[in-house]
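Could someone model 6-diazenyl-5-OXO-L-norleucine with this protein?
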Amino acid sequence: MIESRSARRVRRALVIGLCAAPCAAAAVTPPPLTAQTTRYDFPFDWPFRGRQRPAVTASRGMVVSTSGLASDVGAEILRRGGNAVDAAVATAFALAVVHPEAGNIGGGGFLIARLASGEIAALDFRERAPITATRDMFLDASGAVNKTSLTGHLAAGVPGSVAGLHAAWQRYGSLPWETILGPAIELAERGFLVDERFHRNLAQAKERLLQFPSTVEGFLTSGEPPAIGATFRQRDLAETLRLIAQQGPDAFYRGRIADLIVQEMRRGGGIIRHDDLARYEAKWRDPIVFDYRGYRVLSAPPPSSGGVTLAVILKILEGYDLARLGWHTPESIHLFVEAFRRAFADRNYYLGDPDYVDMPIAGLTSDAYAEELRTTISRNRASNSEDVSRVLPVGEGMHTTHLSVVDSAGNAVALSTTLNSFYGSGVVVAAAGFFLNNEMDDFSARPGAPNQYGLVQGEANAIEPGKRMLSAMTPSVVLDPAGRLFLVAGTPGGGTIITQMAQILTNVIDYRMDLRTAVDAPRFHHQLFPDEIRYERGGLDGLTIGALSSMGHRLRESEEYLGDVNAILILPDGTRLGAADERRGGEAIGA
Ligand code: DON
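Reply:
Sure, complex below.
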């Protein structure tokens, strides 16, 4: 068995450090450790150790999002007597104002709810292809995928966020709709202080955004992002939100905002028309439900691939004693990677919009199938993606956000929304003040050709009129073996979303990390193609990299940190622990 020195250190830390108090107390269902108690031996260079930002503790409600301003909105809604759905919807609208990179009304998303009554629900408000979309609309004369699936008006799918947030509120909300939108309207109208992150993200996207006059007008004063410390106001967006508050989603799908979207489309050669908007519907679906070591996972169903792919991964891993193998040992990383590889092969081949394709979901998520897949995994040799894949790549050459909410009654909401890339298509709807997504790139523009995340997807996800493009979003709620609410979590990251979630779940369930440590821990990714392990800078030591290479794995340091996990863990005594990912700087706020 190959084991690096640091891996042995980690294993020792697990045995000695983590089990001291809690393991003995609960042999059957080990409770998670409380915050701030765990010592974990991360590689020397790893920058995130939660020391500056311990998990936030609350006895009643908790909101965790990528923005302190938005989390604050959700927490205030909880304090005013709103429930978790009210707070999640209010936080999402606030993110559309303060986090225009990904928070949105021009995109879409998925919501998983688990109510204190035990009721569970999944809401799909994924964008749809416009009615006049065609299979080859992004191919040039030579058959290669061009850039219009990423930037500009054609890249936009029919937005689902307003319909989705309203549907969630209509079914479960308790406060008036206007109350839910109030804080977002105020943030847009009065403005907020530009911080370093807001400025930097706009500056990085500047060249792309400068192509669109309406975007320049709203976000780039004299061609530059607003200065750090300046107050940033969005009057058009405030008016748009006010119309939605007064008239509900009809303002967006049939009224003035629909007119503005269609005008914007005509100006820029886009194809979304009034019919597309009027026909859009958010859909309630059954969550993907599966068990992992006695814990019950509720996650996003197709047209997200998140829940199914996470199930395939965890079902494979369930057959190995990860805790004994140790966290981030070459052996355990190898097994994760082989599970990722096989799960992505099925994802890319089978999954798509359930209204358009049949999928063998029960089979894919079954124990028997996982057992079969395990027989194809060697314990010490990397397999070859081309041998595993069902869709072979053809030669050819972001942004999402997740929020988690738990209220005092124990209702839980995991909500991921996205524009796809940072600022979506780059196009702001003139006079309406919001970015349109570039979600069309999540389709297989040409089956077998990698999309912007390098995902090589197949026929099941080819473009068809009205179809929803396959997503990787994995908002999830986990119950402990006693059926109690245990974890609410999700993350952005395109294809990496699923593999980051697999690591968060195993970090708390197998490796018994406290929540802060589980979120801080370095992560890695493999998605079948490209056939490489992507790891975070400082996240794997040289010995581990060497050991994995000698098993036949290719490794590459990621240019950016992976994911932005915003999570809540509920201790057996009901205490809520909230942790926002230090990788991007969100905030957990108790209420
Ligand atoms: O739905 C999806 O899978 C992608 N559009 C998500 C994009 C994303 O997470 C970008 N974030 N970094």
